[in-house]
Amino acid sequence: MSTLTGKVALVTGGTSGIGRATAELLTKNGATVVITGRREAEGKETVRLVEEAGGKCVFIQGDMSLEADIEKAVSETVSQFGKLDIAVNNAGVEVAGMVPEIDKESFDKVFGVNVWGVLASMKHEIPVMLKNGGGSIINMSSIAGHIGAPGLSIYIASKHAVEGLTKVAALETAQQGIRINAVAPAVIETAMAERLFGGDEETRTGMIARHPIGRFGVSKEVAEAVLWLASDASSYTTGHSLPVDGGFLAT
């Protein structure tokens, strides 16, 4: 694996789960990492964990559904560190509900972060990377972007949108030194998964059975995929969605 020494990375939604694991792994491989998120206490905890391990991490508080906060995160990253080489657009939210139950407020909440947040992030990341001569952008998708699932209508729709945005942006920048890919996890042991299952062990057991590998994933396993896409080891890969799913999509 190529190292990321001297690289500067921005990870949105870096306050917990996959975002935190990604920040930790990128710094272990030499990158300086800026994380964003709405929760200050959790953001500072990520910084503490990274710094205790010998890495360099900065927290910028922000809501990734707001373009002004996204622009601020990108501009402050460049102001502090002079450039942006890697962007991991990881911030995401979920709302469950059957189609007749969905209201505009729920739609706006999910699409505001999951879709507009990703699009607006790329909008501001790409011009900065072009000034550097290139970079790597990784959008956090989901197996939800490849399937349908009753009760998850707007979350499923939002991740399908992330898949499409990733492909379009990758084509637009392919000859300009910027690679844009997505990572598509199955169920990962995070707070989001716990919210979806609501402590229902029967549902949890049934969902595990849909993963041929026989378990849910952990955040570090997703972070490893992000690391590969962020590094020069994936230099010929763009416009790709990489499942990290324990075989889910193979069934």
Automatic annotation (TrEMBL):
GO molecular function terms noted in the UniProt entry: glucose 1-dehydrogenase [NAD(P)+] activity
Keywords: Oxidoreductase
UniProt domain Ketoreductase: residue ranges: 7-186
Enzyme superclass (EC): oxidoreductase
InterPro entries reported in the protein's UniProt record: KR_dom, NAD(P)-bd_dom_sf, SDR_fam
Domain of life: Bacteria
Pfam families attached to this UniProt entry: adh_short_C2
Similarity comment text for this entry: Belongs to the short-chain dehydrogenases/reductases (SDR) family.
Protein name: Glucose 1-dehydrogenase
